[in-house]
Each structure stands twice: as C-alpha cells, then as structure tokens.
Amino acid sequence: MNEEKQHSQQAPALFDQYRTRGPTQPPTRNEMETVEDSPVEPPSAETSEVGMPLEARRALVLLLRQGVVMADSKRLAFEALCRHEALIAEYLGNIFMHMLLDMKAGIAILLQQETADRDEEADEASRLINKRTLSLYDTLLLLVLRKYYQERETAGEQKIIIDIERIEALLAPFLPLTDSSRAERRTLNGSLTSLKDKRLIGAVRGDDERVEITPVIRYVVNADFLERLLNEYARLADEAGAQTDEEAQDA
C-alpha cells in the first residue's frame, strides 16, 4: 500500500489532468475524458537532426508513435529512453510534452505538458495529444480494472491477470447506470479492445478468456480518486436500481 501511495504522489493521474473540473459529483456519460494514443508524426529515426544518438532517436520515434513503451515488450527501446532521458526530455519540452519514466515498473509514458498560465486557445494550439471522451461504460470498466489491479498488486502479485467472467461480475453492480446488460459480451469485448490499443491491458497468449492488466493503468487513475469515484458510482447505481424496482411495481 505504501508503494501504491508513492505512485499516486509521484506520477500525474491522467484522469486528474483531463476530467471535468467540479466537486465530488462523478462524470456522467460523455463527460469523462482521457488521452488517446499519440497522433504525433515523429521525425525519421534515420534523418533526425536533434543531436541524439541513433538508438535514442529510434526509441523516441517509438514513444511518439505509441504513447507508451514497456520494457517487457520493447526492452532495447526502453533502455535507450532511460540512458538518454535528459536529451529526450529536452526535445519533448520543445514541443510541450514530457516523458514519465518509471524504471522500476519498466514503463515510459508520453504526456502533454499542462501549463496553468497558458490560455485555452494557446493550449489547444500547442497540444499534440488529443482528448477523447469516454462513454460511461468504458469509464466504469476502467475503474473496476484499476481497482482489481490495486488489490492484486497489494497482495504481492507481479503480473495481474483477470478473466472475462470476473470482469463481468465486477461490472454487474454498475449496470443500472448504463444501457448495457450482463449478457452483452460484445459491448465488453469492444471496450477491452479499446483498452488494449492504449496498452492499459494486454492479451494473454493462447487464452482469449483472460487479459493482463498492465502497470500503465496506475497512471490513468490514482488510488484516492479511484475510491471516491467508485463509491459515488455505487451510490448512483443503487438509486437507479431502486427507481427501476419502483417503476416495475407501479406497472
């Protein structure tokens, strides 16, 4: 748990950066925002003149294209990002971006610089990572996966794997808030594919019924915000369920 708190303090939570400002009322459909995969068109690794070694330029190109570089799958690129962190940080700073580097977890994440003194128009003009609004269903899926990851990491697990049926069970209490039902596996599969594209989860080789939750999810929702939002959504789901029961009785 101490490690979890340390992650929350050191790393910016993307939901904290991009969610709608306001009191404790949770976002409803089309109000929650997160970042998409980076749409940046990177310089050529072979022709760039940014004063970096070739391995650093190639690693930078990969980071700009994917938004996330993980040591598990791209070890050489991740090691290059670590070795040339200062040069890469200088380059990214010139285009209003920065790299969050977690050497222990083996993750490099590309983030947009958030500057308080820039007005909204100037901020949009300099933004290379677009915002995308999450549906309520996708938001709930992300929250329950983050909660599960936190619980299993606290229990000492190194690789967090969850099966699809377990995900459905975790989502079930919140379904009164959505237009989906427990039986709609197609909706869940579509949302899981979207999270895979953002490298928040990964496939388990040879097993289509389970997914691995990657450490990237730590930086999307911090622990304090996770608990607060889940509690509020649970309260709203209970109210929605009670209202549905009353309407059924009146009918």
Automatic annotation (TrEMBL):
Residues 1-50 are annotated as: Disordered. Pfam families: DUF4194 (PF13835). InterPro entries: JetB (IPR025449). This is DUF4194 domain-containing protein. It comes from Dickeya dadantii (strain 3937).
